[in-house]
Amino acid sequence: RKEVEQDPGPFNVPEGATVAFNCTYSNSASQSFFWYRQDCRKEPKLLMSVYSSGNEDGRFTAQLNRASQYISLLIRDSKLSDSATYLCVVNRGGSYIPTFGRGTSLIVHP
Amino acid sequence: DVKVTQSSRYLVKRTGEKVFLECVQDMDHENMFWYRQDPGLGLRLIYFSYDVKMKEKGDIPEGYSVSREKKERFSLILESASTNQTSMYLCASSPGGGIRNNEQFFGPGTRLTVL
User: Fold this and answer.
1) pLDDT in tens, A1-53
2) Smallest Cα–Cα separation from A19: which of A93, A96, A82?
3) Is the N or C terminus of chain B more exposed, i.e. has fewer CB atoms within 10 Å?
4) DSSP state of A82
């Protein structure tokens, strides 16, 4: 099992749709979880951290399921500008060293 | 705002040349990282550093070395560039000091082509 796995997509959704991505991780000792967004030919940027209690930022909600070892990202009311690649990041054990998933591509169309 | 800068956006080198990629961060971060990103493979960690003069191998260190003589600067060195090192190179930094301080800030990347 790869350390961090994501469905590469692409997820092709209309504006206004709700879309969810999952990311599984293999190291049960991991303690830091993040979602990053990467636009084409740009560097990754932090979208949100994922805490045990889950967190919400506007249209974006992130959840952590430790028992099943996955994190999720839910995007409500998708906008054209949400089109990007979403990278799941899990730190290795209790360290600060990250492992990046290969990313999930989202395309929001009119 | 944290700023991470990389010395070049685009670089073209010949096989066998020694290549230096420079990265500078301006927020006094403890940790710095070098990645390469290739289509279908995602970001792969080459080397990282948690302090001045300290370095650790990442997942794909072969053919690379690094230098961190000052806290704000982390250099990636390709001793003898090869065509399979053609890639996008991304530098990142993170504050350090606890698991909640692991957010990575990335530079704009250097697209290196080795002919």
Assistant:
1) 678 999 999 999 999 999 999 999 999 988 889 999 999 999 999 999 998 88
2) A82
3) N
4) G
